[in-house]
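FYI - complex with manganese (II) ion, inputs then prediction.
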Amino acid sequence: MGDAPCWAHLFYDFDAMTPPAVPADLDAYLAQHDARIHEQLFEFLRIPSVSARSEHKGDVARAATWVADAMRAIGMTAEVAPTAGHPVVVGEWRGAGAGKPTVLIYGHYDVQPAEPLELWESPPFEPTVRGGNIYARGSVDDKGQLFLHLKAIEAHLEVRGTLPVNVVVVAEGEEEVGSEHLERFIVDHAKRLACDAVVISDSAMFAPGLPSILSSLRGMAYFQIDVQGPSGDLHSGSYGGAVVNPAMALARILATFHDADGRIAVPGFYDAVREWPAKVREGMRALPFSDDEFRRDVGAPALGGEKGYTTLERLWTRPTCEVNGLLSGYTGEGAKTVLPAKAMAKVSCRLVPDQDPLEIERLMKAHVARVAPAGVTATVTHLHGGRPWRADLEGPLFDAARRALAAAFGREPVIVGEGGSIPVVGDFERVLGAPVLLVGFGLPGENAHAPNEWISDENFVKGMRAIATLWEELGAGRRT
Ligand code: BES
Ligand code: MN
Ligand code: MN
């Protein structure tokens, strides 16, 4: 295999690999059924399964049923399991038998709200192909990637009547709102979900043509700060200067979160942060990355962050504390002289191993209570949390993954970190005791959570081929 600017060579001896290939029969099946597979994907994408909005509750339920039907149609058993929130869909095929590994595939069928609608070039829930990309809300995050897993299973079962591994598919409807009920579900169903490996496609590749295995995810502690001053809005002339302004008080609280070097100044915040292995940091520096290109992509006048770290280190290895939303006072047209009664901020901290979301929330609460100016009350309310995660990248699962990715993409994968969060990943690992493989087929610029979300059709197709090959490799138990 060629020598890519990647850091997989720190873990693997690629020269010792026999070049793997996508099994020809599976490849032919996927090519033959390409049109129908796309039609089915588009049908799935048309369901506006927005988990955050109560008016879409029925659509979320409809998407769950759709996924269960899609599982049954390919020969799996499927159950739509209710939770206190949106349902979990569990699909199973256990025909490989006890001598073969069991893999759990996780994905989510819920999507982010599509707003602002006016910025979409084609309607968010009417999938449209432009320039080789499929545009729709959920195309890449995560319906397209969940669906490609079902089609990889289908290829095996249709062509060969069997699969080299047992599979359990867990499709969730609450990922985009924090997966609040999934941990409980995994604990309650731990026996049924017992497996040798967890595989998830809900992330992106580092660059086009560069298949990527994730080595880490950040966790999350999300809360809301409410600052209350006077019992009602006041005339800012008659009262301003003598009554503490809640908007100003909130601004002062928020301003204490960081020091001048961009470090989080909340006492105890970094106590649990575990050092990153030297070879991981070395690998990150070897990835092809340009600060200037990144800056231009985001359209910011300059980059900024914690002093002493590179951009990728800031994104992948360091925790953050960010304001996600701010609300107070008059924000309409023109001027209104008012001293607002209250102010609110949505704040989320991205966490790294081994920070604990509840402990971070406790520290933040104590800090806010300490720094809140006299004359207002500040309350911190929990919204959601999730643990950070780091992989060890050793063992047959990762060997199989890198062979399968090499087969489908024609080059060895790179190992990358990730700044985003998938709250349930740490739970899977802890509760089920199985290694987690994160292999996603999105691309930078895919507009996840934003208008004009897309998945590259080439990646969707190669993703199906890679995953079909993954089961072949894992079932064969080949090692290099
Ligand atoms: N698929 C993303 C996670 C992700 C983002 C992976 C970017 C790789 C790259 C997931 O659907 C997501 O959006 N997660 C949320 C979690 C939150 C709602 C708890 C996130 O990261 O904000
Ligand atoms: Mn996702
Ligand atoms: Mn998402």
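The longest strand covers residues 219-228. The pocket of BES (ligand 1) is lined by residues 141-142, 175-176, 178, 202-204, 220, 386, 418, 420-423 (CB under 6 Å).
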